[in-house]
Write a structure and sequence with these properties.
seven-stranded mixed β-sheet, homodimer
Chain lengths: 347, 347
């Protein structure tokens, strides 16, 4: 196919805007840039190679090619995309909201577990039982409209700071994972979050923090009730009722419910992601399942108990999960050795 | 901005593929084609004008502009995108599957409502009660893996024919609505189905019939159970348990669950779509809510009971809904006068 240059000149004169578009796509496809490392915060090694080899194999013509519309990648959030220690961010949000809840219902001030949370006694708070925590979740994550909830989370996430780094939680997204998300999207993969955290909570900041749109966030979801406010305007109210527990097998069920496709790539970091990895890996053709191992106490945290790392209730990565990963060729990402840089703010 | 023609020649030589891309986008943006009617099966009138004026206002710079990522349009399926009379297609599927269910469980042959369905007595079948129908739905829509179900629906939808037109149901998609879906997508709108029908059922053929991907189908969803087959492979099994009843207020709740955004446009045709229209229209900025009125007994069906049309249990459009539409500026589409052509196969 050839085109006369006079025709091109005419084109240039009349379609300057299109040429700008052309140049934009050109700069993306120029060989020099295409060969630039899309994952500069990853050290060379098995993990990085597994990712780039997979993406190349599934996006170029060949036996492992995956049709663009089927390119789905799912990511756990806590401990996979951002820091989850010393406590899940959403749980900190819930504890932070307790004073506001008690201000509206003063009778709660003397009732457990609210009394303990108000005391500010960190040790006592850390010892709260699951039923107690559930009471706090129900009180702070339901009873308001989704619009009110969105506003509250938006304000909180813009101002709250992590106790160690004294930075907003959204700045504690892992830089290597942000590069990975962009790299996958640049290769036609739709990137989804599949989180045990609240779907409504994560949707508030996922676009800003990860470039992931609300409709691509699958998470634990409570009941939603349609109704009307005092002006007769429709409202959606968050109910203290669990609709989808997006953990363990629930992650796969949530993926089926919201996406309706089996992922080609899945990234997790704990036992709560096991079934999602298993389901992903069991698909036909090429599939990639990876787990982030937190083995870097200096730059982030070290916990397992896999590989003799300290045990943790938050983001547990058992030795059994590690052994299963080895057996099934799920790739374990060592934070310490695979990640050159953890956070964007690091020098 | 200017470019030397020698540079362009070089470009032409080295980037032939990009030029093809350029030409492809050129033909899309060429003025002659842009002015071609994107909705040729719609007669000129208030309905067509409402659509084109809305799309222009929300996609061009101005006070009603909608950011591309927020452009969401939701469509009811039965009676809005395809024929729903004399009976919902999925219900016909369920009745058709009864012999296969009974073959596996012969004891059902003498038990109601299966006995009546097996009798083939159309009048008796039409009189089955809701609890009876629910037994048939449970028996034919659950108990199998999602993969088995997909296969069964795929086979059925490829071979089953509508009793009146003797054509596959997917050919009974309304041509004006197919044009509308394409027109909206060409203008950056994501098109979603929000159906009272089964989410898993509609997902099987939505891409083929409407160009709508599985992840853009919101529908009635049953419980899904993660488990393993006899070879230890992960399976998802459909359970006889209702998770989301995607009708009435449930449509809005389903939209929140799966999409997490309020639609800018919504299309329905019955009382089951009322809350979805109300919720859409209550959003800020420009919003468009429309209802298809089946007032064409000759080319399709006529039912209401709005406007004195015959009453119907399937796709009921009450006079109250019609009055509300008038009051709230929801646009009613008259199948008879607004649609030049109903089906693609018509001359």
């Amino acid at each position: 196919m050839t085109f006369g240059s006079s025709f091109l000149s005419m084109l240039m004169a009349t379609h300057a805007r299109l040429l700008i578009v052309l140049f934009a796509s050109m700069s993306l496809s120029a060989p020099a840039l295409a060969q630039a490392d899309p994952l500069p915060s990853w050290n060379d090694g098995a993990a990085k190679t597994a990712i780039t080899a997979f993406v190349e194999a599934t996006t170029r013509p060949g036996p492992k090619f995956v049709a663009p519309e089927a390119r789905v990648a799912t990511f756990d959030q806590d401990g996979t995309l951002w820091v989850e220690h010393p406590m899940y961010t959403q749980l900190i949000y819930c504890l932070d909201k307790v004073p506001a809840v008690v201000a509206k219902k003063p009778e709660l001030a003397t009732v457990e577990p609210f009394k303990t949370v108000l005391s500010g006694d960190h040790e006592a708070i850390a010892k709260l039982s699951m039923p107690d925590l559930e009471k706090i979740l129900a009180a702070t994550l339901s009873g308001m409209t989704v619009d009110q909830f969105d506003d509250e989370v938006k304000k909180w996430i813009a101002s709250a700071k992590h106790p160690r780094w004294k930075r907003p939680y959204t700045e504690l997204a892992y830089q290597p994972m942000l590069e990975l998300l962009k790299y996958l999207r640049a290769n036609g993969y739709k990137t989804y979050i599949a989180t045990g955290g609240g779907q409504d909570f994560v949707r508030v900041y996922a676009q800003q923090a990860y470039g992931i749109a609300p409709e691509q966030v699958v998470g634990t979801a409570g009941g939603i009730k349609y109704g009307y406010d005092k002006n007769g305007q429709p409202t959606l109210t968050k109910e203290p009722k669990l609709l989808l527990n997006d953990n363990d097998a629930g992650k796969v069920e949530g993926i089926h419910l919201v996406i309706g496709r089996r992922p080609y790539l899945t990234f997790g970091n704990s036992t709560g992601d096991r079934q999602m990895l298993e389901y992903t890996a069991a698909g036909d053709g090429a599939r990639l399942a990876m787990l982030v191992l937190h083995d870097d106490a200096t730059r982030e945290y070290a916990y397992g108990p896999a590989r003799g790392l300290p045990d943790s209730k938050v983001g547990t990565f058992t030795q059994a999960l590690y052994d299963e990963a080895q057996k099934k060729n799920w790739v374990v990402i060592s934070m310490k050795s695979d990640w050159k840089r953890i956070f964007a703010f690091e020098p």
